[in-house]
Design goal:
73% of the residues lie in helices and 2% in strands. By secondary structure, the chain is mainly alpha-helical. Helix 2 crosses helix 5, helix 6 packs across helix 7 and helix 6 packs across helix 8.
């Protein structure tokens, strides 16, 4: 990418690793969830749209080629083509929405909140339609409202909490990560 420094590449790699680690952290609830989405939100909030998108894209690519970075140390093309693979792929348009919002509207808190909400909506939509297609193809037909009940409704509140927590963390951490160090 144009004007991408070694520091940028290092931060992208670091946050790709953070996403991979957070993907392994499972929170036991009625429907368990991982901290993967929290890491995605933090990556975007701390690194910004451009570097955050690169980090997320790298995470998706690593998992797709078989590196076990997805939840439960899974990876591979089969995971991405599976019923929940749309949610993994959906992280990329989610990041692109954040990047576009940042580019056109700036980095203010209302923009961050709105772009994270819009990105999450697109993630849910993409993942749900993907789930419906794969589930219908492999098992039986599933209607839209049943898919929402299984794949979206149990995650709305946890994802909103993760987004709020990520915005808080990003507000505290980004000033240290994005500080330009002067040569000695």
């Amino acid at each position: 990418m144009k004007n991408f420094t070694v520091r940028d590449m290092t931060l992208c790699a670091l946050f790709t690793a953070i996403i991979a680690v957070c993907s392994q952290i499972s929170v036991p609830m009625t429907v368990p969830f991982t901290m993967q989405t929290f890491a995605i939100f933090c990556t975007l909030g701390i690194l910004g749209g451009k570097r955050g998108t690169v980090s997320i894209l790298l995470y998706v690519i690593l998992g797709t080629i078989g590196i076990p970075v997805f939840a439960e140390f899974s990876g591979g093309f089969g995971i991405v083509l599976g019923a929940t693979g749309g949610y993994i792929i959906g992280f990329v348009p989610m990041a692109l929405i954040y990047w576009a919002a940042e580019k056109f509207f700036g980095k203010g808190l209302p923009v961050i909140i709105a772009s994270m909400a819009a990105g999450l909506f697109v993630l849910y939509a993409f993942g749900t339609f993907w789930f419906m297609w794969v589930y219908t193809k492999n098992t039986e037909a599933v209607d839209f409202f049943t898919a929402l009940k299984w794949c979206v409704l149990p995650f709305i509140v946890p994802d909103a909490v993760k987004a709020a927590l990520a915005i808080f963390v990003a507000g505290r951490v980004s000033k240290y990560v994005n500080t330009k160090r002067q040569p000695a």
